[in-house]
Amino acid sequence: EPEVTQTPSHQVTQMGQEVILRCVPISNHLYFYWYRQILGQKVEFLVSFYNNEISEKSEIFDDQFSVERPDGSNFTLKIRSTKLEDSAMYFCARKGTPAGDTQYFGPGTRLTVL
Amino acid sequence: AQKVTQAQTEISVVEKEDVTLDCVYETRDTTYYLFWYKQPPSGELVFLIRRNSFDEQNEISGRYSWNFQKSTSSFNFTITASQVVDSAVYFCALSEARGGSNYKLTFGKGTLLTVNP
């Protein structure tokens, strides 16, 4: 059983459209993260979410991005107006409370912006 | 700022050969955590191992072993008697443990390991 599930597995959208990527952690954890991986490149940190607030965001995470946990369970990443360069695999991860606890990743959502 | 370097972009071996994947890291923190993840062709990120900065003991898990050396800021990963199923991209990652921080992971660029039959 996966630690985290993500939906959809693949999303195709037109440039300028809004997309919402969803993450559902199996267990109840406080730390959540979004990372992205452009095809063939390394995994990059986007944002961390702790105790229902953004705790840190990277330079990539500009005003076009937002995260929320609307119902206390699902954790969403919204891209308001997608660009071609947003095409990537987006991974959600969760972590337990102990310092340095392992981050477990979901299977990812492949976003394709046309 | 933290940084992870995986100098080997691609490695190709023949089945049953041993292979070592290199990882060098940079951090200003005295407390930090190191990880290895495997990304098979299916794309998911699979956790392999975590080490904290205070524990330099090497670890062995089946055919996998890890050599952590603080003196050289390295955390190398060896696969003994490689198998075709080991073919994947392997990422080394670093997390700092500043108080109140978010423990974000900084990844290296990954090493693509191809094991040929």
What is the string of helix and strand elements of chain A?
A: EEEEEEEEEEE
Mean pLDDT of chain A: 89
Q: Tell me what portion of residues of chain B adopts beta-strand conformation.
A: over 45%
In this structure, how is the largest beta sheet of chain A organized? 7 strands, mixed
Number of helices of chain A: 0
Greatest interface (CB-CB under 8 A), with counts per chain? A-B, 27 and 25 residues
Q: Count the E strands of chain B.
A: 12
Largest sheet of chain B: 6 strands, mixed
Low-confidence stretches of chain A: none
Instruction: Report the β-strand fraction of chain A as a percent range.
Output: over 45%
Helical residues, percent of chain A: under 10%
| N-C termini distance of chain B | 41 Å
Average pLDDT of chain B: 92
Write the layout of secondary structure elements.
The complex is a heterodimer of chains A (about 110) and B (about 120).
Chain A: E1 4-7, E2 10-13, E3 19-25, E4 31-37, E5 43-50, E6 53-57, E7 65-68, E8 75-79, E9 88-95, E10 103-105, E11 109-113
Parallel strand pairs in A: 2-11
Antiparallel strand pairs in A: 1-3, 3-8, 4-5, 4-9, 5-6, 7-8, 9-10, 9-11
Chain B: E1 3-5, E2 10-14, E3 19-21, E4 24-26, E5 32-39, E6 46-52, E7 59-61, E8 64-69, E9 74-79, E10 88-96, E11 105-107, E12 111-116
Parallel strand pairs in B: 2-12
Antiparallel strand pairs in B: 1-4, 3-9, 5-6, 5-10, 7-8, 8-9, 10-11, 10-12
Can you tell me about this structure?
The complex is a heterodimer of chains A (114) and B (117). Chain A is globular and about 40 Å long. The mean pLDDT of chain A is 89. With 114 residues, chain A is mainly beta. In chain A, strands 2, 4, 5, 6, 9, 10 and 11 form a seven-stranded mixed sheet that branches. A four-stranded antiparallel sheet of chain A has the order 1-3-8-7, with no helix packed on it. Chain A has no helices and eleven strands. In chain A, a hairpin with a 6-residue loop joins strand 7 (65-68) and strand 8. Chain A starts with a strand and ends with a strand. Chain A has strands at residues 4-7, 10-13, 19-25, 31-37, 43-50, 53-57, 65-68, 75-79, 88-95, 103-105, 109-113. In chain A, 0% of the residues lie in helices and 53% in strands. With 117 residues, chain B is mostly beta strands. In chain B, strands 2, 5, 6, 10, 11 and 12 form a six-stranded mixed sheet that branches. In chain B, strands 3-9-8-7 form a four-stranded antiparallel sheet, with no helix packed on it. Chain B is globular and about 45 Å long. In chain B, strand 5 (32-39) and strand 6 form a beta hairpin. Chain B is built from no helices and twelve strands. Chain B has strands spanning 3-5, 10-14, 19-21, 24-26, 32-39, 46-52, 59-61, 64-69, 74-79, 88-96, 105-107, 111-116. Chains A and B meet through strand 4, strand 5, strand 9 and strand 10 of A and strand 5, strand 6, strand 10 and strand 11 of B.
